[in-house]
Amino acid sequence: MCQREQIGGAASSTVRHTYEADDLAGEMLQMPESQTTMLLPADAFSHVPMLAGKILAPEKSMFRISRDTFREWDRRAQEAGYGENWRRTHEEREETRSRALAGRLDRDLWIFAYGSLMWDPALHIVEIRPAMLGGFHRRFCLKIEIGRGSKDKPALMAALDEGGECQGLALRIPAHAVDRETEILWMREMIGEAYIPVFQTVETPQGPVEALAFVMDRASPRFADVGAEEAARIIAVGSGLLGTNLEYLDNLATHVETLGIKDAVFEDIRSGLRRQKQHSL
Predict the structure, then answer these.
(1) For 173-208, how does the pLDDT look when each residue is reduced to its tens digit (9 = 90+)?
(2) Domain boundaries in the chain?
(3) Does the annotation count 257 as an active-site position?
(4) Catalytic residue among 127, 181, 189, 193, which?
């Protein structure tokens, strides 16, 4: 989605902690890095040489954000009518990070990536592996009313939901950078209350690793427990100031396929869209 478009439109001021960084637009501020630090070194691609050049350099990512970024996000969210409680406070968000990473800040950390983190991690990564997460699958079940959606035309984003398995990437953050990098990651993934951070064993060609994954919180008001046909109906009309839900679907599918990952969820949604189009003729 375009990061330079404005947030706008009417919305309820009672919504609290329900929107993620990927839903927001604006000039995102980048954190200064050492001139000698390469955040994604060439060695990181030793297991996946075919991905070299297909993953955005973290230094160029709009998601390498800082707390200063939130001042602009807060302004735009309030202009859109979401009120002051549209997100977790910094203290609330950091509390969730402290709980999830207790005893883990002094060791390498693996992240399981299944969506935009695969091609735009915005993190200091020193190793990338193909990975399979069991017990969860990629599903369009995260409903939003901002970004690619609106109050009248909500959109569905992809998330990790219970059951099945999901093919993605395992990304390793070196121990010395885990505290700094996870603070950035939490500002992106845990701005609201849609995800639960969990540690799961993921299988890689080089052996299993324990990785952090952000899975759908089924207790969240943003969880949409809908089948492929209903998901296709929502995606067909979902639209917001950042564009349409259909554009998001096509963009995600294209990136996932470019990385050599196959997932039937995209064809299921596309089949539903085709049937809807035929019925409308």
Answers:
(1) 999 999 999 999 999 999 888 999 999 999 999 999
(2) 21-280
(3) no
(4) 189
